[in-house]
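Note to self: the last two entries modelled the partners one at a time, which told us nothing about the interface. This time every component goes in together.
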Amino acid sequence: MSVLSVSGLTVRGDTVLVDDVSFAVDAGDRLGLIGESGSGKSLTALAVMGLLPAGLAASGSVRLGDVEVVGASDRELTRVRGRAAAIVFQEPLTALDPLMRIGAQVAEPLRRFGAERGRALRAAVLDALREVRLAEPERIARAYPHQISGGQRQRVAIAMALACRPALLIADEPTTALDVTVQADVLTLLDGLVRDRGMGLLFISHDLAVVSRVTDRVVVLERGVAVEAGVLADLLRAPQHPYTRSLVAAARKLDTALEWS
Amino acid sequence: MTVLEARDVGFAYRGSAPVLTDVSVAVTEGRSVALVGESGAGKTTLLRLLLGLARPTSGAVLFDGADVRSAGQAFRRSVQTVFQDPYSSLDPRQRIGRIVAEPLRSLRIPGDRGAAVAAALDAVGLPADVVDRYPHEFSGGQRQRIAIARAIVCRPRVLLADEPVSALDVSTRVRIVDLLAELRETRGLTLVMVSHDLAVVATLCSQTAVLEGGRIVEQGDTASVLGAPGHAYTRRLVASVPRLPAV
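The predicted structure of the combined assembly is written out below.
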């Protein structure tokens, strides 16, 4: 069964920003959404969560499990968010309250979705931090967001998303703001977590090499239109659409510079 | 010939741990240098010292053998800079023509300013009529071209660039890298570039210095530093770069 099914999704502001996009993600399945700035990939993610900013409206259909997101009330959406799908953004600071200790922030979704209290809740917080491979979970739990590194913050944001036990994890450029060695560790972490939990993954990125680390199937967006979809290996070998061809050529050119012989 | 050099440089903010320790890098004219490393490694601080924007706590920064902070006009004219963010580095209230001509004015370089601006714009692949437009009318890649035009308008010998393509989409990034490579060839420009993107470094710079925690852990020919790294940190850096699957 699909954990996410998007069909004919259109997002309009003053103009059409996402135009008739369709795709599906099954349980345990991974899909990459590829495109450059302005391609509509982040708006698609926000539309899936029912989080479009004021002034933008979605039409078509977005089904998270058995719930239709397009046209749903805030109350219905609150029930779905977190459990049916959780999202991790590029900049983990946007997901974290600067005035609240990390432990209290991780406890919030755990309490809401797991019903633990007191000592059991504190233990669950430390387990959640351990699951995202944070060393010294006790210290991290006591810290405020500004006291830990960018990579640690992104792990905390992932822990908070996972605390909801989501059927689908949406990751919107989750490693773009991170150093390359930290990025490699976070990608390995995500890859393992998605496999262990059998979640669906919608991974959004402009970077084909990064996407190839975590997914094997992609949709390519250009100015709001899905111009090509398929298995990443095929698309890298024989891109069909001119836009995909230019993306692959640019990525290849940079990649080739790293061949030493 | 060494044009710009950091010699045994150390830098610390008052009362804080050192940002740079015993850093020595020499830039030879015609051999572009990359400073690579991760956040907090001290790359940007080193670039600021090379630009004379800050004074080293110990050691010296030399331009043509003399201290950069006393080198004055000759230094300013010979060493120009391009920053990471093409949105914040261009004054939104000024027309492109005035922005690109700025170094000519502030350095009081005589001659036909209009012709110099037109030549610089042409070199970065922008049409001459952009001079009457404002920065907000341009995309990120075009703005970075404008910033590069401003940097080369006074025909410098060295271009210091701090992550000049990191804010750009990948296809735009490739085009700006191509432009920098072309300017390096046609104008004999020497690049000193801070970058975390090893593919960009490998394309543009024949020399690479790797910084970790304010120290240079390895430096030399890019092909040997990145192709056969000797230091554990460089090996980890190179191994972390996501690669496309082989076809």
